[in-house]
Structures are given as structure tokens and as C-alpha cells.
């Protein structure tokens, strides 16, 4: 019954592998975001999308790409995973009419060995 | 660099006490929000205060904003063990709509 879901919840992968993290939402929001969180740190924005045809780079987009397949789906890809991409990844959504409050998914814990 | 910086980084109190966390930021903002994160989970929105507001309340939460000092504080009154979590401030700059998060305060409330 979660409004924002992420798959997988946990993933261990090897250096050099391509990996995709998926996010789906049932809130009907236009805007979706991908963040990463490193231990003891706040969240840093990777990419965001205000609409299906809109993709924008965030603070730390190098090494990542995204795809907004539909209003409800926003996926994050690591082209060639490296160990310093080991982190907790969060998807979030917000509404155009109330764009400041964001709703977060449960997170994906990614480990790159 | 992070827009918001939070102080203290960690806070440990007894149940029933009040907890105060502070956030400072660098640029002009449209609003400031506080989020809560239980260990390893997603963030949950707590409260938003607009740049033209000075104080806002929601249940046991009180947020203040001083735009002249570029700072905000979050007060949790009569804390409970269930309040144990990390608390993050996040700002929206006047020129945009993206959130920039601080590094968070880890609050531990001991029963």
C-alpha cells in the first residue's frame, strides 16, 4: 500500500556491472527525483524530472542516467558501477501544485564490490 | 556543498525532555522544511515554514525561521523514545524548486 515503491530494496553488484534501480508511484505526482545518501550525510540530488519528457541533472549526475518511462515510473541506471557508488538510494515525488513537500520511497541499499 | 548545516550532529536526551536542533543555510530561500528519517528508511516530511513566516507549530513540533541569520530551529517538546531518528532540514531556493538537504541531526531519546 506504499505510495512510492522502489525495487530492489537491496542489491550487491560487482564493479563494472550495469545496474538499474526502479521507482514507481501511485500518488499521481508529476515530479520525481533520485537521491543518494552516504553514511552520516544528508541527501544529494542525482537527477530529477518534472514531467515525462523532462530530465534534469542534479548535483551528482556523473556515472548515472535516468529514464522516465511514464508519469508513474522513474528509473536510475549506473552505467558501470564502481565501489564509491555504494550508498542508499532514494526516489521521491512531489506535486506541481505543492511542489515543495516531497514523498520518499523506502530506499535501495546498493553495495558495489 | 550542502546548503544546510545542522547542529548538533548528534543529540541524546531523556524521555520527556525537549530536543532542539538547528539548521543554517547560505542563500535566499523560498521555504525551509524539516524531515525525519528512521534508521535506513525513507524520509518523512514533518513541517514546512515559508520565508515570510517566523514560527510554525504542528503538534509537539515548533519550527522557527530567522531569515536575517539564515537559520532555523526545530523543537520537539516532551520527547518520546519513538522520536529517536535523524532529522534533516531542507531548503528551497528562491530561484528554483529543488530541495537541498542538510547533513542531519541524529536524535536519541532514552526511555
Write the layout of secondary structure elements.
The complex is a heterodimer of chains A (113) and B (111).
Chain A: E1 4-7, E2 10-13, E3 19-25, E4 31-37, E5 43-51, E6 54-57, E7 64-70, E8 73-78, E9 87-94, E10 103-104, E11 108-112
Parallel strand pairs in A: 2-11
Antiparallel strand pairs in A: 1-3, 3-8, 4-5, 4-9, 5-6, 7-8, 9-10, 9-11
Chain B: E1 5-7, E2 10-14, E3 19-24, E4 29-37, E5 43-50, E6 55-58, E7 61-66, E8 71-76, E9 85-93, E10 99-101, E11 105-110
Parallel strand pairs in B: 2-11
Antiparallel strand pairs in B: 1-3, 3-8, 4-5, 4-9, 6-7, 7-8, 9-10, 9-11
Give an overview in words.
The complex is a heterodimer of chains A (113) and B (111). With 113 residues, chain A is mostly beta strands. In chain A, 0% of the residues lie in helices and 56% in strands. In chain A, the strands form 2 sheets. In chain A, strands 2, 4, 5, 6, 9, 10 and 11 form a 7-stranded mixed beta sheet that branches. Chain B is built from no helices and 11 strands. In chain B, the strands form 2 sheets. In chain B, strands 2, 4, 5, 9, 10 and 11 form a 6-stranded mixed beta sheet that branches. A 5-stranded antiparallel beta sheet of chain B has the order 1-3-8-7-6, with no helix packed on it. Chain B is globular, with a radius of gyration of 13 Å. The chains are: A mainly beta (113), B mainly beta (111). Chain A binds chain B through residues 4, 35, 40-45, 48, 58, 88, 90, 92, 99-107, 109, and chain B through 2, 4, 30-31, 33, 40-45, 48, 88, 92, 97-104.
